[in-house]
From TrEMBL:
This is Diaminopimelate decarboxylase. The modification N6-(pyridoxal phosphate)lysine is found at residue 55. Keywords: Pyridoxal phosphate. The lineage of its organism: Bacteria, Pseudomonadati, Pseudomonadota, Betaproteobacteria, Nitrosomonadales. It comes from Nitrosomonas cryotolerans ATCC 49181. CDD domains: PLPDE_III_PvsE_like. InterPro entries: Ala_racemase/Decarboxylase_C, De-COase2_C, De-COase2_N, Orn/DAP/Arg_de-COase, Orn_de-COase, PLP-binding_barrel. Residues 26-377 form the Orn/DAP/Arg decarboxylase 2 C-terminal domain. Coiled coil: none annotated. Its cofactor is pyridoxal 5'-phosphate. The keyword rRNA-binding does not apply. Belongs to the Orn/Lys/Arg decarboxylase class-II family.
Amino acid sequence: MELRLAAVFTSVRAAEVKSDEPLCAYVYDLEALRQHVDQLVSTLPDNCRLFYAIKANSDLPILEALAPLVHGFEVSSGGELDWVRAHFADIPVAFSGPGKLDRELSRALESNVECLHIESFSELQRLAEIAKGASQPMGILLRVNLPVDNLTKTSLMMGGKPTPFGMPVEQLEACFNWLQTHPEIRLRGFHFHLLSHQLDAQAHLQLLAAYQLQVRQWCDAYDLQIDHINVGGGIGINYRQPEQQFDWKAFSTGLVALQDNTVLPGINIRFELGRYITAACGYYVMQVIDIKHSYDQYFLIGRGGTHHFRTPYAQGHSHPFHVLPVNAWPHAYPRLSVSNDRVSIVGQLCTPKDLLAFDAPVESVSCGDLLVFPYAGAYAWNISHHDFLRHPPPMQWYLPTEQS
Ligand SMILES: *Cc1c(COP(=O)(O)O)cnc(C)c1O
């Protein structure tokens, strides 16, 4: 996962020169995105498939860059499904999400969804009413909320705890029995999405091994004929120590070994990654409007804020950033600066929650400099509350641009 910082910085500087107001922008590096995903897909074992969970970032240029490279898209709403089908008539689609409407289930049948992820027994029964009379059986996975206690050192683990996602293990038997008399639905396997922000490759491999063992037992106990299991998303981005990212090389190597000795021969493993695919291709840029020294603390006030980039506040971290010095200072009054100190970075919103970085060391930063936040390509613009305070949206562009 290489960041092409030089190319991004060059384009940000060029935009700053042309702008007659402090700059605020999202920049996406599509070439880096392609290289990253190409590398992920090419290092997966043969029986593994990579889907992209589009809720991480469903902007069209991102999806267009990814569509030829991934095996399919995972959608979590009827809106996402329609968006994908409007632009990609044939790409394989998996459809997840608690609380699907009847209309969304019908749309799934009409729009050639390849696999539906069923979240409860009653959703299964509802689907059967809708799928009755369809020309072919609807393929489904049962989403399971699986306890994997020995592997849960992290509070990010949802598995085995009360959640609205998936069904507890003890409800599966009723589903298996019921499915025997419902040929309009075909059980293709199981879906597990038990955690987010996984940074430990070995722990993730152990989790996958545990899923496979569990599925082997269900297949044997209930004589199930399945074709794949979906092991969800959840591979994380290390925002706190960006130089220490998830070790994909160790992960893919371990995965090859796991698949060589698999307890589920002939069964595909499907990933539906979101954050890990698109986080690194996006950058959020703010130009410093003001610097305040308030009771021993420095605040950099940038153009923009959490209404554009809610990721750091949503995750509770201080987001990493780069300072791009801008030499021009068009004013007669002295330019404010901070050197070798710690700063908080805030935006333009009238709330103390508008915080993007805190207690962050800087060598030197001045009013008018540019702040570039990397890892802003997933759960960033599209999880933010854009209309709060009615500031205009940031500029947005995609590298490589025509001039580069
Ligand atoms: C959000 C989500 C994903 C993607 O998760 P990431 O942490 O972004 O990889 C995958 N599957 C399901 C069911 C999800 O809800």
